[in-house]
Structures are given as C-alpha cells and as structure tokens.
Amino acid sequence: MSLRAQSEIRDILSGNGIAYDVTTIDRAPLGGGNGPVREGYKSSTIYKFKVKKTDYDKAKYLISNVNMND
C-alpha cells in the first residue's frame, strides 16, 4: 500500500470518528539487499489498520474506493 493511500485512509477514518491503530511492516529483505520483487510491486512497506469490530463494516465501506496500489 502506498504512503498516499495510508494517509488517505487515516483521514477518512478520523473524519468519520472511527478509532484505529496502524502497524507498519517493512517487507524489504534483511540487510537491504535486492531480493526478488513481484511484478507491479512498488513498495516494501505494508500498513495494517485495526478498528473495533463494531466499526469494521463502516470502515470497510468508507475506504472501499481508496486506490491501494499507486
């Protein structure tokens, strides 16, 4: 997911009063070497968002139009 998408999701969730936690995962190879990269894969960073179960359906709907891969 791009940094732009992560920022957009934060704005959407915050703007709709949905509390969230975000975890950043770096998928780059250890040592910073050039490991295999999937075709079309542009980033080695993944952002995982967690929301309350009661907010899940609303959050999923609100972010459904965010382009995750630009």
Q: What layout of secondary structure does this protein have?
A:
Layout (H helix, E strand, L loop, with lengths): L2 H13 L4 E7 L18 E7 L1 H10 L8
Antiparallel strand pairs: 1-2
Structural notes for this entry:
This protein has 70 residues and is an alpha+beta fold. Helix content is 33%, strand content 20%. The longest helix has 13 residues. The N and C termini lie close together (8 Å).
Unreliable segments of 5+ consecutive residues: none
Task: Round the Cα radius of gyration to an integer and report it.
Answer: 14 Å
Helix fraction? 25-40%
What is the residue-mean pLDDT, rounded to a whole number? 84
| Overall shape | globular
Order of helices and strands: HEEH
- How many strands, what sense, and barrel or not for the largest sheet? 2 strands, antiparallel
Strand order in the sheet with the most strands: 1-2
> Total number of β-strand segments?
2
Q: What is the straight-line distance between the termini?
A: 8 Å
- Percent of sequence in beta strands: 15-25%
